Each structure stands twice: as C-alpha cells, then as structure tokens.
TrEMBL record:
<feature type="region of interest" description="Disordered">
    <location>
        <begin position="1"/>
        <end position="27"/>
    </location>
</feature>
<keyword id="KW-0812">Transmembrane</keyword>
<dbReference type="InterPro" id="IPR036400">
    <property type="entry name" value="Cyt_B5-like_heme/steroid_sf"/>
</dbReference>
<feature type="compositionally biased region" description="Acidic residues">
    <location>
        <begin position="189"/>
        <end position="198"/>
    </location>
</feature>
<keyword id="KW-1133">Transmembrane helix</keyword>
<dbReference type="GO" id="GO:0016020">
    <property type="term" value="C:membrane"/>
</dbReference>
<dbReference type="GO" id="GO:0005783">
    <property type="term" value="C:endoplasmic reticulum"/>
</dbReference>
<feature type="domain" description="Cytochrome b5 heme-binding">
    <location>
        <begin position="86"/>
        <end position="184"/>
    </location>
</feature>
<dbReference type="InterPro" id="IPR001199">
    <property type="entry name" value="Cyt_B5-like_heme/steroid-bd"/>
</dbReference>
<protein>
    <submittedName>
        <fullName>PGRC2 protein</fullName>
    </submittedName>
</protein>
<feature type="compositionally biased region" description="Basic and acidic residues">
    <location>
        <begin position="1"/>
        <end position="13"/>
    </location>
</feature>
<dbReference type="Pfam" id="PF00173">
    <property type="entry name" value="Cyt-b5"/>
</dbReference>
<dbReference type="InterPro" id="IPR050577">
    <property type="entry name" value="MAPR/NEUFC/NENF-like"/>
</dbReference>
<comment type="similarity">
    <text>Belongs to the cytochrome b5 family. MAPR subfamily.</text>
</comment>
<feature type="compositionally biased region" description="Gly residues">
    <location>
        <begin position="15"/>
        <end position="25"/>
    </location>
</feature>
<keyword id="KW-0472">Membrane</keyword>
<feature type="transmembrane region" description="Helical">
    <location>
        <begin position="39"/>
        <end position="57"/>
    </location>
</feature>
C-alpha cells in the first residue's frame, strides 16, 4: 500500500487509485461472464420455444389441410343435434371416426364439439377426448389415456382446485358449443325432451 499524495491509499501495482483490477465503477470481469451466460440461456430458451411451436404447427397445423377442410365442411353440413341424454357407451359412438359428429362430456354435460373438429377430431390435439368424458383430463391437464375412465367417473377424488377447473371448463364449453344433453349415471333413466324445450335452449345459447 502507498500514499498517492492526496490522502488516499492505493494498491501497489494499481494505477487507478481504486481497489481491485476493474477500475472504479466497472463490474468485475466475472460479472460480465455471468451476464453473457444469462443472455445465451435466454436466447437458447427462446429458440427452444420457437422450435416447439414450429413442431406443433407441423404436427397439427398441416393436418387441417385438405382433409381437415373436408371434415370442417362436413361438420358444417350436419343438422343441429336434438336434445337427448347419453350413457358412456352411447357417447363413445360420437368420436369423429365412427360418426362424423363429435361429442364429449364435461362435468356431466354433453357438448357437440363437431365445429371444433380440428381440435377434437381423430387427428386433433384433444382428439383423445372425442366420444368420452373429458372432465378428469381437463381438470388435471392430462392428455393421455390415464385421464379416461371406462366406467362412469364421479370425480369424487378430485380436490377443490381441480373441481373448480372442471366447472370453468364447463362454462367455456357452454359459451362456445351446443349443449346436447346429460351424461347418465349407471342406472339413470334419460330425460324426455320436447321440441319446445330443445328450441328454447338452443335460442338461449345463441
């Protein structure tokens, strides 16, 4: 250490009067490396996100080409479905493959999602739910067969947050798609709907 004449102490070999080797006000050399590393990490994450989006587009977007357009045209030509209730077995017929109409159930309500065939059709990202009860999958954000039950699913093991999610999905489907009936519990008898009730409810949805 040496006195530089104005009362400050400087380190031997340092010409700037400050402590360390980076100069007054400059970050240490290591800090620049950290900032550079963070920038590279952010750029890498952005590139991965863009790649994932592109792969999703290739996987699902290209599938709604000529075949997808034909399915959407066919869906638009279908008459509005009359109100009725469904057992699980009856619901499974409407999977977009065996039947061009696509139905799914959410929280005990059955919706006609045929106009959303690019999402719920056999090749769509949510096609696994076509003709099935989608409640558990939507509540748990699970898009594989673990979310499906072959027997009636009363959802009694879901927690409060998951049940709230199911109700929110139900409201979204009510706003966007036609409600066509109830999903029947085992042994439950279907309701008899009159044409007047059916027309009134469809008008209310519109």
């Amino acid at each position: 250490m040496a006195d530089d004449g104005d009362g400050r102490l400087r380190t031997e070999g340092s010409s700037d009067g400050g402590l360390g080797s980076g100069g007054a006000g400059e970050p240490p050399a290591g800090a620049a490396a950290v900032v550079g590393g963070e920038m590279l990490l952010n750029v890498g994450l952005l590139a991965l996100a863009l790649l994932a989006a592109y792969r999703l587009y290739l996987r699902w977007g290209t599938r709604s080409g000529p075949g997808g357009a034909a399915r959407q045209s066919q869906a638009a030509a279908l008459p509005r479905m009359k109100r009725r209730d469904f057992s699980l077995e009856q619901l499974r017929e409407f999977d977009g493959a065996r039947n061009p109409r696509i139905l799914l159930a959410v929280n005990g309500k059955v919706f006609d999602v045929t106009k959303g065939c690019k999402f719920y059709g056999p090749e769509g990202p949510y096609g696994i739910f076509a003709g099935r009860d989608a409640s558990r999958g939507l509540a748990t954000f699970c898009l594989d067969k673990d979310a499906l039950r072959d027997e009636y699913d009363d959802l009694s093991d879901l927690n409060a947050v998951q049940m709230e999610s199911v109700r929110e999905w139900e409201m979204q489907f009510k706003e966007k798609y036609d409600y066509v009936g109830r999903l029947l519990k085992p042994g439950e008898e279907p309701s008899e709907y009159t044409d007047e009730e059916d027309t009134k409810d469809h008008t209310k949805q519109e």
